[in-house]
Specification:
Blueprint lengths: L10 E8 L5 E8 L5 E7 L6 E3 L5 E3 L2 H11 L7 H17 L4 E3 H15 L1 H11 L5 H16 L1
Parallel strand pairs: 4-6
Antiparallel strand pairs: 1-2, 2-3, 4-5
Helix pairs in contact: 1-2, 1-4, 2-3, 3-4, 4-5
Length: about 150
């Protein structure tokens, strides 16, 4: 590993432990040349995933798009950053555990909706309104009724 300070290839691991999410390893390293310390993270390399959009366009999977959608839905709601990160991690785990090379954006949206429903009902309705492209108040009300009926069960 190259030192980010002096560029030397002479670095060594001085501490190694699982990162907070237990899906990567945090390594503290020290440069033998300049003596400075830095942190690296080691994560399992995943298969590149292609997302098939609603218009059949294909693009590479981008976690930040899911995060942005969830953040918008949770704006000014009592949902912590750690809960949002866990929600996105759970969705990502579900997606990658399928071990397929392509997935539809619709399928990803459904996974997000399943997770966000349990986090915050207002955030769920916000996300659903954009994701399902509600055209009028009636569609919006139908979604609210479904949500209310599922809470009664």
């Amino acid at each position: 590993m190259k030192c980010p300070f002096c560029g030397s290839d002479n670095t060594r691991v001085i501490d190694s432990r699982p990162a907070d999410d237990n899906s990567s390893i945090r390594r503290r390293r020290m440069c033998d040349e300049c003596g400075k310390r830095f942190t690296t993270y080691e994560k399992v390399e995943t298969i590149p995933l292609i997302v098939i959009k609603k218009d059949n366009a294909r693009e590479q999977y981008d976690r930040s798009k899911i995060e942005a959608g969830v953040l918008r839905a949770c704006h000014k709601r009592p949902v912590s950053a750690s809960i949002i990160t866990k929600l996105v991690d759970d969705v990502e785990t579900t997606i990658f555990s399928k071990e397929e090379k392509e997935i539809s954006s619709t399928e990803i949206g459904e996974y997000v909706m399943d997770k966000i429903r349990d986090v915050d009902p207002v955030a769920y309705v916000r996300f659903a309104s954009v994701y399902r492209e509600f055209k009028d108040v009636n569609t919006f009300m139908n979604e609210l009724k479904k949500m209310l009926d599922s809470e009664k069960d």
